[in-house]
């Protein structure tokens, strides 16, 4: 057997061992470390809507300014996802993992001390770049650490932290709204708390090992990949390890000129755009939606209803994705989720009188959230981490996530204008 053949077998043996390695404490720690970024993403997703209730009268903001404040971090996330995704393929996952969390910490804390509308916009851009960068970094690292059998479940577990963040937002809002603090203090504390989750895992992210798949397949350093794998897995590498293999890289130009990869970007990114347009447009605007549903209700009542919806429908949806995604199949689950979402939004927009009845509306609103989570919100996150080759995996995921965040920006930006013209019915029909 030639040297090159031995090397090839050794490289495959590392990947095969990774694909069959049992789940260990390391994988759960990695899921927690990666998931706290999405906890922050979801917390901010809800809390900015609650904060705007207090910011709008204090700074006398127009509808356009409200739209920008609610959505500017999402267009920044578009940029962050693409930039961090490409960097992670070029210089490695480990070298930059944690920098996106640092941006979230800086942006979150700065928002709490923003002296004006313009500065708050700037700080939310910083926060958004960090949130966007977290998508390709955390998804791909978790996917590359995981074995084949549990890859979808582990990557969904990372994203499932979003559910806890969604529920934590109303808890914070309710607590602060009942505290009797001045409105200026309430919204600043709301935004500042978002810096704490990424701060808690900043050190853990900076000390995570490099992806063995990246080392073996992209850098060609099979020996080092085997050592890294041995540090956190009980899986065995059965073939002899050679010192180096020829690195396998696909350039950005090659990627963008290859119809196969372009279709993957358009397919994963297009589905993500549609999902985020509906999900972010509704989730960020939940306080406003509930206020339109019951105009005489207080901010605390709206936060309580939001907590009920997120706890009873959204979190179980995330859990269902974690346990059943791999069994059902990612594409099938995505189609099921989109179909039920469309039916729920259609019913909320077309059934006569439903927007005047709190309980039926909240039930359908909750069903839409369950099938967003048990469907495209999780599948659009997981699928790009699996379909691209290792050397362009974070680039591809970052592009798909960036397209998704652009959809989130559009949905969030246009929601105030659609709801102003068409009320809740119009907003639901255009979701």
TrEMBL record:
Q: Which residues form the Major facilitator superfamily (MFS) profile domain?
A: 30-431
Q: Does the keyword Transmembrane helix apply?
A: yes
Query: GO: which molecular function terms?
Result: transmembrane transporter activity
Gene Ontology CC? membrane
Q: Membrane topology type, per the record?
A: Multi-pass membrane protein
Could you list this entry's UniProt keywords, alphabetically sorted: Membrane, Transmembrane, Transmembrane helix
| Membrane-crossing segments per the record | 30-54, 66-84, 96-115, 153-173, 185-204, 300-323, 335-355, 361-383
Instruction: Report the subcellular localization.
Output: Membrane
Family matches, as InterPro entries = MFS_dom (IPR020846), MFS_sugar_transport-like (IPR005828), MFS_trans_sf (IPR036259), Sugar_transporter_CS (IPR005829)
Can you say what this protein is called? MFS transporter
Which species is this UniProt entry from? Acidithiobacillus caldus
């Amino acid at each position: 057997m030639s040297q090159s053949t031995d090397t090839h077998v050794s490289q495959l043996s590392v990947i095969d061992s990774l694909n069959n390695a049992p789940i260990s404490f390391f994988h759960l720690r990695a899921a927690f470390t990666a998931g706290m970024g999405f906890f922050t993403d979801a917390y901010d997703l809800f809390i900015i809507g609650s904060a705007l209730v207090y910011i709008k009268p204090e700074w006398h903001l127009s509808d356009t300014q409200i739209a920008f404040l609610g959505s500017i971090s999402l267009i920044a996330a578009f940029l962050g996802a693409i930039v961090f995704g490409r960097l992670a393929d070029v210089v490695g996952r480990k070298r930059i993992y944690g920098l996106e969390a640092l941006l979230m910490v800086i942006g979150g804390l700065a928002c709490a001390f923003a002296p004006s509308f313009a500065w708050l916009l700037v700080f939310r851009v910083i926060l958004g770049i960090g949130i966007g960068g977290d998508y390709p970094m955390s998804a791909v690292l978790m996917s590359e650490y995981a074995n084949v059998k549990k890859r979808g479940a582990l990557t969904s577990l990372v994203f499932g932290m979003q559910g806890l963040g969604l529920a934590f937002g109303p808890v914070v809002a309710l607590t602060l709204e009942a505290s009797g603090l001045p409105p200026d203090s309430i919204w600043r504390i709301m935004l500042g708390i978002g810096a704490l989750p990424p701060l808690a895992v900043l050190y853990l992210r900076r000390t995570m090992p490099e992806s063995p798949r990246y080392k073996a397949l992209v850098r060609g350093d099979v020996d080092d990949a085997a050592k890294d794998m041995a540090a956190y897995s009980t899986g065995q590498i059965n073939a002899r390890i050679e010192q180096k293999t020829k690195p396998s890289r696909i350039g950005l130009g090659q990627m963008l000129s290859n119809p196969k990869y372009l279709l993957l970007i358009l397919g994963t990114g297009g589905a993500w755009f549609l999902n985020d347009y509906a999900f972010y447009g509704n989730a960020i605007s939940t306080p406003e939606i509930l206020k339109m549903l019951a105009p005489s209700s207080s901010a605390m009542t709206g936060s309580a209803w939001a907590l009920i919806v997120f706890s009873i429908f959204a979190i179980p949806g995330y859990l269902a994705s974690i346990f059943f995604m791999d069994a059902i199949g990612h594409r099938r689950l995505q189609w099921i989720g989109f179909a039920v979402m469309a039916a729920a939004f259609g019913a909320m927009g077309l059934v006569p009188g439903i927007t005047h009845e709190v309980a039926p509306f909240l039930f359908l609103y909750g069903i839409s959230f369950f099938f967003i989570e048990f469907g495209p919100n999780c599948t659009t996150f997981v699928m790009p981490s699996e379909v691209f080759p290792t050397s362009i995996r974070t680039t591809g995921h970052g592009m798909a996530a960036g397209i998704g965040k652009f959809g989130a920006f559009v949905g969030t930006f246009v929601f105030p204008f659609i709801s102003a013209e068409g009320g809740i019915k119009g907003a639901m029909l255009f979701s």
